[in-house]
Backbone:
């Protein structure tokens, strides 16, 4: 177990885990990591359960100091990561020596994650450690905060993998909602032909998208009775701009929803940098279920896709300082890595 | 891109009710009404209770909104066709619109300040309802309002139904922020806000009630089916309650 001191925190830094499922009937959305895939990737790198809490950095910066040797993994939107000045590879696991300072900066937007061996041992409220800012659960981390890691049963570090590409925009697949058919067919076609990008206004509750040309809407000012909504729902609000609901969304809503983004495609949305092109494409429900099941199976097998980091010769000093001296590598990393 | 003409016909808002429709990839919505009615609201609550009682292994979560029941299920353990068949069979078991209200309902007496700078839109809302401010307060406090659903924010009730003159629209422009405990009105309903939020509903009253208290064993104060009777208090009484009572002066009694 190790202490973590937050030396410097930009905005939007929170503890996140898989969130709180099961409170929809009480008006509390699940919340949890904006990019659940990145959470699973970090857990795979550290060989631990994906219920562990990690630090989520929303397009910001953070400096952390650890009191004791601790394993970390870095996933999600790539950042410039340094440990006491030496570069740390992204999408990889590392051993930090006691007293090390990790500095993360240079985010292009999206959500980045710092995972710790044993997870972060914060208080559990309603079954989770994650902050749900919209519900007033937890808060953003600030300078001077202290955290503690849980007991770490693993030892393996120096692992990496190739992440699912999702950091450059692309196509978001949707299924229909009960209101999709209320939109004119031509409007639905235009929706799928339009290139969108993220509005600067976006947070863990939802992301507004903007496009050139007219917004979208229903022919008649239909009054839709408020009903249950889910993350991924694409609301068409008064101004015609699509608003995609995310982890901390409200639980009911009365705006017409043109479609629902597949959960397996939400990481692509939340990780798209400002200005990246995003498009929508409807798939039928059977196809969506198959895609979702396949992604579930892929995530369950993430550990099988790990490989030892191949080290660049100029990183050797870093390797000697932080891997061998801390005594936790297999001892043959140099051989296996070259 | 999928040609929309090839897509499964999802029906429209006028389809026969109750209806079963997919929501997202792993959810189903059973709808009992395209408009709010007391019977459809009762049906949705009773149907949710029935699904919970079935204890189906593939069902991960259920919830209700005003007139519909939502079911989220495990894609690894079931598919849409199976769940739809099961729910259709359950719908056929009885006339859900005749179902009774949930068991264990309570009547809550909740002190509220109406008007003043704490709830600045009382006059505005009263005028839209064609009432004087004092008649508006009397009308709102004349009868218990039922919790039709909890939603939008944690523990937040939609209360109704007010008399027809309260069928007033939401504002076009949002109020940037109402505080926790704010009581707001539109479309014959009232919302009691559990978190500070922007809203299009008109802020007519202010309570000291904290509807979501995550650190308590029972974090959500109100349940669907409960009733709430507002009691007008002066600003001084309200401030006094707020200082001394974490429960906002609310007291409950069992309804039979």
Residues:
């Amino acid at each position: 177990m190790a202490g973590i001191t937050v030396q410097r925190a930009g905005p939007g830094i929170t503890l996140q885990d898989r969130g709180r499922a099961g409170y929809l009937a009480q008006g509390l959305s699940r919340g949890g990591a904006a990019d659940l895939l990145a959470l699973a990737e970090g857990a795979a790198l550290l060989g631990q359960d994906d219920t562990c809490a990690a630090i989520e950095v929303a397009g910001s910066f953070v400096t952390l100091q650890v009191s004791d040797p601790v394993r970390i993994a870095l996933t999600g939107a790539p950042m410039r990561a340094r440990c006491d000045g030496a570069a740390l590879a992204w999408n990889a696991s590392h051993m930090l020596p006691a007293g090390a300072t990790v500095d993360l900066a240079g985010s292009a937007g999206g959500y980045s994650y710092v995972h710790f061996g044993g997870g972060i041992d914060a208080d559990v409220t309603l079954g989770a450690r994650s902050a749900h800012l919209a519900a007033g659960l937890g808060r953003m981390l600030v300078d001077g905060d202290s955290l503690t890691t849980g007991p770490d049963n693993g030892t393996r570090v120096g692992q990496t993998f190739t992440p699912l590409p999702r950091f450059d925009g692309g196509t978001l697949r949707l299924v229909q909602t009960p209101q999709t058919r209320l939109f004119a067919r031509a409007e639905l076609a235009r929706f799928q032909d339009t290139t969108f990008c993220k509005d600067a206004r976006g947070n863990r509750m939802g992301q507004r998208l903007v496009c050139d040309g007219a917004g979208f809407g229903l022919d008649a000012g239909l009054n839709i009775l408020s009903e249950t909504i889910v993350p991924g729902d694409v609301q068409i609000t008064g101004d015609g701009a699509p608003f995609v609901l995310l982890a901390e969304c409200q639980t009911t809503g009365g705006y017409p929803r043109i479609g629902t983004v597949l959960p397996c495609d939400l990481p692509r949305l939340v990780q798209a940098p400002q200005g990246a092109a995003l498009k929508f494409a409807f798939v039928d429900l059977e196809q969506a279920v198959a895609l979702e099941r396949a992604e579930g199976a892929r995530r369950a097998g993430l550990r099988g896709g790990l490989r030892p980091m191949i080290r660049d010769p100029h990183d050797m000093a870093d390797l000697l300082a932080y891997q061998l001296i801390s005594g936790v590598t297999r001892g043959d990393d140099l051989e296996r890595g070259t | 891109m999928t040609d929309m003409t090839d897509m499964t016909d999802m029906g429209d808002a006028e389809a026969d009710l109750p209806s079963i429709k997919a929501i997202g990839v792993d959810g189903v919505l059973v709808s009992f009404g395209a408009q709010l009615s007391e019977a459809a609201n009762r049906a949705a609550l009773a149907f949710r209770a029935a699904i919970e009682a079935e204890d189906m292994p593939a069902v991960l979560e259920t919830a209700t909104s005003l007139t519909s029941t939502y079911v989220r299920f495990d894609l690894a353990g079931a598919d849409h066709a199976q769940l739809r068949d099961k729910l259709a069979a359950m719908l056929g078991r009885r006339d859900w619109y005749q179902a009774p209200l949930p068991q264990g309902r309570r009547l809550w007496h909740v002190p509220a300040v109406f008007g003043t700078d704490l709830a600045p839109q009382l006059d505005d809302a009263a005028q839209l309802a064609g009432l004087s401010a004092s008649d508006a307060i009397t009308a709102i406090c004349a009868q218990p309002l039922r919790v039709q659903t909890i939603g939008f924010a944690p523990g937040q009730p939609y209360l109704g139904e007010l008399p027809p003159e309260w069928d007033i629209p939401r504002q076009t422009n949002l109020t940037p922020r109402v505080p926790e405990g704010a009581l707001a009105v539109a479309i014959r309903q009232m919302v009691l806000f559990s978190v500070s939020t922007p809203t299009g509903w008109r802020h007519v009253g202010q309570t000291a009630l904290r509807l979501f208290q995550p650190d308590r064993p029972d974090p959500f104060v109100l349940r669907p089916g409960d009733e709430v009777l507002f009691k007008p208090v002066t600003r001084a009484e309200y401030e006094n309650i707020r200082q001394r009572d974490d429960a906002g002066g609310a007291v409950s009694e069992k309804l039979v």
User: Anything to note?
Assistant: Chain B has a mean pLDDT of 92.
